[in-house]
Amino acid sequence: MQYIITAYDGTDDKAIDRRLMAREDHLKSVEKRVKEGQHLYGAAILDDDGK
C-alpha cells in the first residue's frame, strides 16, 4: 500500500529554526527508509519566491 503525505512548514518567526533543528534526523530517517524500499519519492513545495 502506498501513501502520499503533504506537510507544510509553519510560517511564524520560529518556523525556520524548528525546520533546521529537525532536518538532520529527518534526512537520516528518509535515507533509512529509501534503503529499505519504503520511501519512493520526496520533493519540496515552494512558494512563488522559491522559498
Task: Describe the protein in words.
It contains one helix and no strands. It starts with 14 loop residues before the first helix and ends in a 16-residue tail after the last helix. The protein is mainly alpha-helical and 51 residues long. It is 41% helix and 0% strand.
Considering the chains and any ligands shown, give keywords for the structure.
single chain, 51 residues, mainly alpha, 1 helix, 41% helix, globular
* Annotation field: number of helices: 1
Gross morphology: globular
Q: SSE string, helix = H, strand = E? A: H
Unreliable residue stretches: none
- Radius of gyration using CA atoms only: 13 Å
Strand content: under 5%
User: How many runs of DSSP E, i.e. beta strands?
Assistant: 0
Give the CA-CA distance, first to last residue: 32 Å
Q: What structural category arises from helix and sheet content?
A: mainly alpha
Give the biggest beta sheet. Answer: none
The average pLDDT score comes to 91
Query: What fraction, in percent, of the residue positions are helical?
Result: 40-55%
Topology of helices and strands:
Layout: H1 15-35
Short account of what is shown:
By secondary structure, the protein is an all-alpha fold. Helix content is 41%, strand content 0%.
